[in-house]
């Protein structure tokens, strides 16, 4: 089914399919005839669909009519294939929508930009536009190339590091930079950019590329139909479905709205506003200084705790009490490992070979993890075990260390079995 059709089904259909109760499953309420049921789909790996259905039956309105359990999803490469933040920045570069920074000083766009990166960007872009004016990146390849290299590779085109001196568990400067490059536009203008980029990405043939500067980048994004069905089924089962993303919040909101997830239930990287115009400064979390925390690894927990659970100050970085936390969470990368691990009922990891997330998911110490291959173009099996016992954990300073479970035990290396 094409995109418009299945989104309409996901957003509007209520499946009137009775649910039976196998041994060990809590029986749905007898007086509820229309218990929400996931579509039968062979793309779910192994018993994952059955486990998800069992969780929905036990936790949703069919058995807990007065409940409102929380379900939180990452967005990019969890709900869709490819990255919506990338797609938006690519569209902006192709349409001359990135502005020359204040005083042509690129350090004003990110506190974490290295002198080498700021100099490289200045050399590539300084003579092409005045302060505050759009850069001609559609036609001036050196400027577009330098911006893409800093963003996608975190290094200059001369292979010098682009960012440094940040907490690797609270922010990813390149992801933050994509939002910071929106500075100078209003919320409505950025929303329009994201909507147009979304339309073009969905229309582009699967697997197609675009040339930006001299670089080939993916032209397409696709919603995962299985994840759209999952979020819709959870909503019909009474769950409070939320999105937490490291993409700019106006971008994440535009993509989520097609699945019936309203903007107020989407958390992304938030620019500070001056009269509805975005600035390069970012709203912080947990009492930390602005620009230092985005929804990334431990920062995702902080924003969930602060914005959804109402936990403020430094406590927002700590694991909330179990009775307050999300019942379900899903993610695809180390970006998501903390908030997915906080889920009390069931956790879904989309397998993109990100070692910290996959180590926790495959270790499955409490039996609440599911691993599923990507639904479009899944990766081949990892040839060697994930190095959980040696280098799977990323410390705040960026160094690697053995991964410990919640009991302090070193997680053993894990074979890749869902591919």
Q: How would you portray this structure in words?
A:
Residues 1-23 form the signal peptide. Keywords: Amino-acid biosynthesis, Hydrolase, Magnesium, Metal-binding, Serine biosynthesis, Signal. This is phosphoserine phosphatase. Belongs to the HAD-like hydrolase superfamily. SerB family. With 419 residues, the protein is α/β, with parallel strands linked by helices. The chain has two domains: 3-81 and 222-401, Rossmann fold (3-Layer(aba) Sandwich), CATH 3.40.50; 84-218, no CATH class. It has twelve helices and 14 strands. The strands form five sheets. It has a six-stranded parallel beta sheet with strand order 7-6-1-10-11-12, sandwiched between helices. It starts with a helix and ends in an 18-residue tail after the last strand. The model is unreliable at 1-32 (pLDDT under 50).
């Amino acid at each position: 089914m094409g995109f418009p059709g299945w989104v309409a089904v996901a957003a509007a259909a209520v499946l009137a399919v009775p649910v039976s109760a196998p041994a060990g499953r809590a029986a749905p309420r007898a007086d509820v005839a229309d218990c929400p049921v996931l579509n039968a789909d062979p793309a779910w790996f192994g018993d994952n669909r059955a486990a998800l259905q069992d969780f929905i039956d036990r936790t949703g309105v069919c058995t807990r009519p007065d409940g409102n359990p929380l379900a939180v999803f990452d967005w990019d490469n969890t709900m869709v294939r490819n990255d919506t933040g990338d797609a938006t920045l690519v569209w902006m570069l192709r349409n001359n929508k990135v502005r020359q920074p204040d005083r042509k000083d690129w350090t004003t766009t990110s506190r974490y930009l290295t002198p080498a990166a700021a100099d490289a960007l200045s050399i590539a872009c300084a003579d092409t536009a005045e302060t505050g004016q759009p850069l001609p990146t559609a036609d001036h390849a050196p400027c577009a190339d330098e911006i893409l290299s800093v963003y996608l590779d975190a290094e200059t085109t001369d292979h010098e590091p682009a960012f440094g001196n940040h907490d690797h568990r609270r922010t990813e400067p390149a992801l933050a930079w994509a939002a910071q490059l929106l500075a100078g536009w209003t919320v409505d203008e950025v929303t329009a950019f994201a909507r147009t980029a979304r339309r073009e990405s969905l229309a582009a043939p699967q697997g197609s590329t675009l040339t930006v500067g001299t670089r080939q980048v993916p032209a397409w994004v696709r919603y995962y139909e299985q994840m759209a069905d999952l979020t819709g089924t959870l909503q019909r089962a009474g769950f409070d479905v939320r999105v937490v993303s490291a993409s700019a919040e106006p971008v994440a909101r535009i993509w989520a709205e097609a699945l019936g997830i309203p903007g107020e239930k989407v958390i992304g990287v938030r620019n500070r506003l001056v009269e509805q115009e975005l600035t390069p400064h970012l709203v912080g979390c947990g009492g930390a200084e602005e620009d230092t925390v985005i929804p990334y690894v431990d920062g995702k927990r902080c924003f969930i705790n602060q914005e959804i659970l109402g936990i403020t100050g430094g406590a927002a970085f700590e694991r909330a009490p179990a009775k307050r936390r999300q019942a379900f969470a899903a993610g695809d990368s180390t970006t998501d490992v903390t908030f997915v691990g906080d889920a009390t009922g069931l956790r879904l990891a989309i397998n993109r070979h990100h070692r910290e997330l996959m180590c926790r998911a495959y270790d499955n110490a409490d039996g609440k993890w599911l691993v599923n291959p990507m639904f479009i173009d899944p990766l081949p099996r990892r040839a060697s075990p994930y190095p959980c016992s040696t280098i799977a954990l990323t410390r705040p300073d960026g160094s690697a260390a053995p991964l410990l479970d919640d009991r302090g035990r070193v997680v053993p290396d894990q074979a890749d079995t869902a591919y």
